[in-house]
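Protocol step 6 of 9: fold each sequence in the batch and record its structure tokens directly after the sequence line. For illustration, a two-sequence batch is reproduced in full.

Sequence one:
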Amino acid sequence: MGIDLGTANTLVYVSGKGIVLQEPSVVALDRETKAALTVGEDAKKMLGRTPGNVETFRPLRDGVIADFDTAELMIKHFLERVHEGRIGLIAPRIVIGIPSGVTGVERRAVMEAAAQAGARDVYLIEEPVAAAIGAGLPVAEPTGNMIIDIGGGTTEVAVLSLQGTVISESVRIAGDELTDSIIMYMKKVHNLTVGERTAEEIKIQIGSAYPTMNIDEGSMEVRGLHLLSGLPRTVSIKAPEIRESMLEPLSMIIEAVKRTLERTPPELAADIIDRGIMLAGGGALLKGLDTLIAHETGIVCHVAADPLSCVVLGTGQVLENFKQLERVVSPRRR
């Protein structure tokens, strides 16, 4: 099995079947018994709407496990759902995608959580490598490939060649920070408190990274709690406002891309200019982001065919061709 254990979504790939599960990385717990009430999509619907005895958790923050017990519960639940409750009998071999900048302790936490959830062998693969394989880049060839994987918690920028990472940078600025910047903007400019779900909806509907006529004409009615009156209120916001609110986190992502390009060996840099930069991850779906990166770097930027699934498809390809791609995974087992 291949798992993309993401801050926002968890995807599971099973050999011979393809992607069998795609659910938000959210768990709803009973406060008293600490038992999981629901996991995934149903738990996400509860965010910000729970009574006092129910708590919703996102066990991963910035691409790593923030709450070990809840993460283990979530992984176990997803594995059982995939194998229809027979996880104890099957004990699968698992390849998990993790951010390239994680510490040894964070790596062990992921491996331990998967092992406790019932895995036989646990292998780790760096997310930019998995995303590049999943996006169809020729990582085994002696040519430079650049990938930017923008997830929920981390942005991974990497230059790959010959099944290895030549240069990589991991910044903990990604989709969550873009959402948070919208929440802050609504509070400062419109005196309106909105929840995480509403801010994410704004980002998806009218969020953009680069000005174009089509995008800038968009507007949206937003409902929230007015800070001055303390009463619910509806305000109308325009697309350029939202782009302005996300300026800071977007510029930090661009800076990480530029820093990586500066450190790239000349031969590989020439390959990247020829081939362009590949964008993957949920953040790649932000309108105009590829145009912004191309404008700032002067290198053409492509968005992967299915950016959300690149990492899990990459883990799946490693499973299917384990002998040829064994070098890209950490050889540590349970």
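Sequence two, same batch, same settings:
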Amino acid sequence: MKITFFGSSHGVPEPNRKCSSIMLECGGKNYIIDMGCDITPELVTRGLTPNDISAVFITHKHGDHVDGLLPFVDLCSWYYTKADPYIMIPDMDILEALKSWFSLVEHLRDNIRFALIEEGLIYDDGNIRVHAMHTGHLKDSKSYAFMVEGEGKKAIFTGDIEHRVGAATDYARYVTEDGTDLVVAEGAHIDPLTYIEPLKRHLPKRFILNHYNGEWEEKAQRLINEMKNELKIVLATDGLEVRF
């Protein structure tokens, strides 16, 4: 497996850091987790197009995780007409918003596939399996973390989790055994030092702090230093590629 960070910032872009989006490569197929930025330029730069995306998984409907879906679906509708991504969304309001926009400017291709995420196994194409797990991030809508299994590996993408005090509770629900191959955890809504206790309880092989903001940057460095003898922690940056 390999992941590439197209966007690693939090609620707003920062210099050299766009809003959240990750590409996962496994078994010769490509998948997108969140689309807070326009990913097509990133794909084309790497010799890919929307035709090469098998599925898209959106953690929740905040703009910094979903705004890039509009230009992506736009290009799939009229230019990349062979694109056939399976787009999994946490709230059908997202699809209705897309339909409203396209009724003004373009035609939304009828056979683009959308599906509503529910907790549990949501995707299995014989190459990867994706389980969705509720997070406490939103109170008026659904928000999810994803566990992805493929090539004998397991990765967890927390999405956005409970604000402040809930970090340890949310995280501990997802990482329930030692040796998880990769955890990509957010660092915008909670103090990164909150991860120390659950990390010590269940230690993954790799840990990447993503979606972090300047408010917590000093504490992110303290987290890295605190865990340095047990686990190498990496801060995500745009363009970062990790094989695991």
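Proceed to step 7 once all outputs are recorded. Observation for sequence two: Residues 93-105 form the longest helix (13 residues).
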